[in-house]
Amino acid sequence: MTRNNFLAKVKRTIGAFFPVSPARRGACNNCGACCHIMVGRCFWLKDGDDGKQYCRIYPIRPLNCRKYPRTESEWVTRETCGFYFEQPKNEPLPTPENS
Question: In the structure, how many helices (H) and strands (E) does the chain have?
Fold first, then answer.
């Protein structure tokens, strides 16, 4: 089963109304990969002279664009995306010595 099937697209769209994972780090690197995962190439995507891709409506882009990737399970553009997710650190339980 592909990670970008119809159900996955619907889940990402609905999930856009929920907060972004606190484990998400990084920033958009203008790869444009996320602009191809809904229904092919997004109409608002433009190619820059520098080889990067840019959103023509970036300040008013939809929630699912603003928040992608919202969670690690929704992250289908790992190969090119500038975002990543940190693994939770196993914090030691508080003791009298470290509290």
Answer: 2, 4
Cis amide prior to 62 (ω within 30 degrees): no
C-alpha–C-alpha distance, residues 2 and 10, integer Å: 14
CB atoms within 10 A of CB 95: 7
Structure tokens at 74: 């929704």
> Residues with Cβ < 8 Å from 92, sequence gap 6 or more?
98
Instruction: Provide the whole-model pTM.
Output: 0.74
Gyration radius from the chain CA atoms = 17
CA angle 73, 78, 81 (to 5 degrees): 115
Q: Which residue has the tokens 């958009």?
A: 28
- Show the DSSP H helices in the chain as ranges: 6-15, 63-66
Q: What is the pLDDT of residues 28-82, one digit of tens each?
A: 999 999 898 877 889 999 999 999 999 999 999 989 889 999 999 889 999 999 9
